[in-house]
Design brief:
It contains 3 helices and 6 strands. By secondary structure, it is an alpha+beta fold.
């Protein structure tokens, strides 16, 4: 299976789209995709720079990785300020946010991002 086929296969039957990303961002992600055989099936993985481990690429994760790459490369946020699935206080409630950027001087959240809203 070719890399573009892998991305299309991952996004098939999901509500996620690549419309917000340019071709070079998608191509950079394609270069990072690794396939492994899991339970007899070819499965796509990516080495997540934020979590520092291999993660299976599902639709939400694919979009999360594209956003992370943009935050790190285009907007030049330092790796140590970007978090995935981070708990954030919303008044009295705590909610898990897909992507946050922490304030450079404190552990406060600067920019929360809910990937599942796109």
């Amino acid at each position: 299976m070719t890399q573009p086929d892998i991305i299309q296969t991952i996004l098939k039957d999901s509500n996620y789209h690549l419309d917000l990303f340019n071709e070079s961002e998608i191509q950079e992600l394609q270069k990072e995709i690794l396939t492994q055989t899991v339970k007899g099936k070819e499965t796509a993985f990516i080495r997540c720079p934020i979590r520092r481990k291999s993660i299976q690429l599902k639709p939400e994760e694919l979009i999360r990785q594209l956003y992370a790459a943009r935050l790190l490369k285009q907007y030049r946020y330092p790796l140590n300020r970007v978090r995935f699935e981070h708990l954030v206080n919303f008044g009295r409630e705590q909610k898990r946010v897909d992507i946050v950027i922490l304030d450079k001087d404190r552990e406060d959240t600067l920019i929360p991002r809910f990937c599942s809203c796109f």
